[in-house]
Amino acid sequence: MINPERFQKIRKLLELRQSDLAMVMDNVNKPHNLAAIIRTCDAVGIETIHAVSQKPAIRTKQKTAGGSSKWTNLTLHDSMPELLTTLRSEGKQILAAHFNEHSVDYRSIDYTKPTAIIMGAEKFGPAASTLEHVDQTIHIPMQGMVESLNVSVAAAVILFELQRQRLQAGCYDKPTLDPAYLQKRLFELSYPTISETLRHQGKPYPPLSEERTPPFFTFSPGR
């Protein structure tokens, strides 16, 4: 049985999640970069991360990196256009981290709006076909000899500006996740072994207590 302190910590984590934010990794394929971006998403309250690739080898790396963090929700895709259509239907502004003649300073963006941020492959950035369909490209100004940052470092710089704006606007002051989804995730993160058994059996999760302490219930794996 989970102890009350950890249960409350997990609940608080979910209550701080920003349901109107999403990170999109476009063919990001180096495991250490993938894992670092996922950790930063967790740190700033992003629940949903999308990884896109048509190459099986990259998809395998993305899945492996996603499995390193149970605290975020990673979804794999092989179609960027379909994903962008879904994100747009959710009312999100779609931004891509990429320097070009139309890009703007990343700090000039209003991140309190529903937002999806696309980070591209380490060497090439987002695909040209992706850039054609974003609302805005953004860049991090440089004053040195280097022309770009490592993709995970760039993601962290942008995401902590996003967090700063949202903290200032009070976006973290109340839960934004759908209540049913929050309860589902709370059960899975608090009772991973039991939830996995119930999923395999096709059974629903027991209801969680409304109190801010762990629920106590009996569980018989064979039933």
TrEMBL record:
Query: Record's InterPro entries?
Result: Alpha/beta_knot_MTases, rRNA_MeTrfase_SpoU_C, SpoU_MeTrfase, TrmH, tRNA_m1G_MTases_N
- The signal peptide here is none
- The segment(s) forming the tRNA/rRNA methyltransferase SpoU type domain are 21-160
An example Gene Ontology molecular-function term? tRNA binding
Which GO BP terms sit in this record?
A: tRNA guanine ribose methylation
Q: Which reaction does it catalyse?
A: guanosine(18) in tRNA + S-adenosyl-L-methionine = 2'-O-methylguanosine(18) in tRNA + S-adenosyl-L-homocysteine + H(+)
Q: Which Enzyme Commission number(s) are listed?
A: 2.1.1.34
Per the database record, which ranges form the RNA methyltransferase SpoU/TrmH type C-terminal domain? 164-211
Q: Give the enzyme class.
A: transferase
| Region annotated Disordered, chain positions | 200-223
User: Which UniProt key words apply to this protein?
Assistant: Methyltransferase, RNA-binding, S-adenosyl-L-methionine, Transferase, tRNA processing, tRNA-binding
Where is S-adenosyl-L-methionine bound in this sequence? Answer: I140, L149
Protein function:
Catalyzes the 2'-O methylation of guanosine at position 18 in tRNA.
Similarity remark: Belongs to the class IV-like SAM-binding methyltransferase superfamily. RNA methyltransferase TrmH family.
- The molecule here is called tRNA (guanosine(18)-2'-O)-methyltransferase
